[in-house]
Design goal:
Blueprint (H helix, E strand, L loop, with lengths): L5 E6 L3 E8 L2 E8 L4 H8 L3 H23 L4 E6 L3 H10 L8 E6 L5 H13 L5
Parallel strand pairs: 1-4, 4-5
Antiparallel strand pairs: 1-2, 2-3
């Protein structure tokens, strides 16, 4: 019987903590958006429209990085305090290559890495004790 590969992704619009659950142990990888405060400040000096275009482009690149990671897993829980999780969910749903993924989505508060890892374990290990 094939074991489903599982990850939890805590995210906001600038960073994502990707947590793989494997045999009850969580490995965490951090993926960061290239659109940071310094880039925003620099672009704002030229024009607001340019800033929004650059921000949208950088956000798309951020989600593409996450999609590359997500492709390797069967079950995904997206969680975090902002709408970034919903935006990523919509990107996943629009990609036919990802249609067989089991995806959960949940709004949470800001969390420490330890809280994020505990959340992922609780989500995937309920009733099966991993």
């Amino acid at each position: 019987m094939k074991t489903n590969k599982k990850i939890g992704i805590w995210m906001d619009h600038s960073t994502a903590n990707v947590m793989e659950l494997k045999e009850g142990i969580i490995e965490t990888q951090n993926i960061v958006s290239n659109f940071n405060f310094d880039a925003k400040k620099e672009v704002l000096q030229s024009s607001e429209r340019t800033m929004h275009d650059k921000e949208r482009h950088q956000q798309t690149e951020f989600y593409k990085k996450l999609i590359v990671t997500i492709k390797k897993y069967d079950e995904i829980i997206l969680f975090g305090p902002t709408d970034a999780r919903i935006e990523l969910f919509n990107v996943i749903k629009s990609d036919p290559r990802l249609e067989n993924k089991i995806i959960g989505i949940q709004k949470t508060d800001f969390m420490s890495v330890n809280q994020q890892q505990a959340f992922v374990k609780k989500h995937f290990c309920q009733g099966i004790g991993c």
